[in-house]
């Protein structure tokens, strides 16, 4: 059997080191360390541990020997033994923030143990830490997460792996698209194929797009993924798609024209407005609206095709048609748009308000009329957000936003091909959901407070303090990695003022929010001081927050927390160490 040069080299190290390890020879740290490394390389973990233990017993004062034994302990699953040794090591040698290789190995040891835990929450922490490491060890842990028995861990691993481009993870993603039975996870993998630019996924995506058995969401995700990875499309291929008997191909042609900015193919979109299938019509409407600034835009031809769609039975298509007509000729859409706001269904009212808000300058007058006419709080909230962004009716709009923030109802985001809308949360937390409804609610609320701060509203500080006092900042590390956007400077200043609040809870919550925005400064001081006096859940948030900031001076503090009695805290500390080292 052939053996690789690398394997032979490792074997050579083992042989030479074994000869050097004669009982009569004095202890040799470097030789013993090479033997341990060689056994770890060939995954002979038990022998590596035994070699490390012999070396440590022969020379217990050796820093190298205790480091090797600690690392080998984790590889053999002896976490408690390894952590006890590490505590002894830390008290004797301390932690140097500028030399982090060994501390990184210890953190990864805790993380690997977490991925082998029977508790999904611990495996979730491990997947997040692996993502932040973004090296071969991290990829191996994420790869394991992609095959995890828990849908929660698989979902997190898919979303996190989607931000990387590793070939091994790409192959796993192809397997998930082909074999995953849970619909939501399959959707995640389809989207990941686009963001990871997995060219080998094209055939799978085409099969989904053209299948009669796949759901609308899967087809939409596949279309988006396909155009994200294909930046070139020949005109003859595009026109062949546009005339295909398959709805999926015709829809794909509409999305591709907009995504690739193919101005010369706009006539295809105009023809699609008369298509027999609603999906083709809807995507064509959106594409035309987003390409209106082109000089070649055929406004009259589009207007003519639009007129019958303004009374379309399918409400989503009708709203999209009214949105496009508002961009072309606002008075022609006004009456019918306002009628949609009177729907008995809150979903329709919210979609309509969001569409009106996204018409921008052409829809300013319509926005104001709709805002004054409607009594639905969610219609008014979505319109208020659009009005504030345009600088119209600021006082009334800001008052509406503050009323929403003062309410107790949970807020959510409803996504549509036209954009996102704020709606009442109808999600339920089943225990296996990656991003909880409360996490989404808090992020939406923080974005609304951010708007107040940007506008210089005098009540921003009060609203923010109330938010931090009444609500525990419940954004998990995964949600933060996937959802959080950085606050504007005005919002940051408002939060910073609360670092001096007399209420300790407010100070800590403010520091956590600033850390989620990657803001350094006094937040670190507040977080470290608060750690010992808060409960376990908030301790996790404190550790995650310190990791977000990524200041290496905090590594000794984080290393101390590796000996916490709770595995969740040890994993949170390990994650923070990895984030800090790779910051």
Automatic annotation (TrEMBL):
InterPro entries: ARM-like, ARM-type_fold. Keywords: Signal. Residues 1-21 form the signal peptide. Pfam families: HEAT_2 (PF13646). The keyword Signal applies. This is Putative secreted protein. It comes from Estrella lausannensis. The lineage of its organism: Bacteria, Pseudomonadati, Chlamydiota, Chlamydiia, Parachlamydiales.
